[in-house]
Amino acid sequence: MAIPAVTTEERALIKSYLLLMFIHKVFERDCRIIQESGVFKSPQLYVEIVGNGAKRAAVLLREVKQEFTKRAIKVYDIGQNQEGIQARYACRGYIGSMNILWPSFREEMMDRMRAYLGLVSPETESSEQAHPPAAVYAR
After folding, report:
1. What angle do CA 8, 13, 14 make, to 5 degrees?
2. Which of 19, 38, 53, 94 fits a 20 to 30 Å CA distance from 4?
3. Mean pLDDT over residues 19-28, rounded?
C-alpha cells in the first residue's frame, strides 16, 4: 500500500501557519504604532484590544507548531513578492511549495483578524440584517 503524499489537512496546517505568522506580525506592529503615535487619547485601551488579538494568534501559532512536530512538517524559505506569498516545506520526507495570491491571503487574514479581535465579519452582519432571527414567543 502506497503512503500518501502531503494531505489536504497538512497543506491546510501549512497555510494556517503562514497566515498566523503574518497576522501576529501585523498585530504586534499595530500595537507598537498605536503606542508610539501620540494620536490616541487612550492608547492603552487600543493596545489591549489589539494585544489580545496578538495573544490569540500566538496561542494558535504555538498549537500549529506542535502539530508540525507531530506530523514531521517543517516550513522554510518563506518569501513574498507582488503576486503573493511563497513557502517551501518538508512534510514526512516530501518536499513541496505553496503559493498563495495576495487577494485570497489578505481576505483570509482579515477574516481571521476580525475573529481574533472578537469582531463580527461584514458578511455575517449583512446576512443577519437580511434574515433576522425568528421571534420566540413564550406561552
Report:
1. 95
2. 19
3. 98
| Measured CA angle at 68 (ends 65, 71), to 5 deg | 155
Residue found by looking up cell 432571527 in the block: 133
Helix axes 43-71, 8-37, angle to 10 degrees: 160
Phi then psi for residue 55, to 5 deg, are -65, -40
Do 35 and 43 contact (CB within 8 A), yes or no? yes
Q: If we measure between CA atoms, which residue out of 56, 47, 59 comes closest to residue 114?
A: 56
Our CA angle for 62, 120, 111, nearest 5°, is: 50
How distant, in Å, are the alpha carbons of 5, 28 from that of 2?
Answer: 9, 44
According to the model, what pLDDT value does residue 126 have? 55
User: Residues near 4 by Cβ (< 8 Å), separated by ≥ 6?
Assistant: none
Bigger pLDDT: 7 vs 135: 7
- pTM for this model (two decimals): 0.84
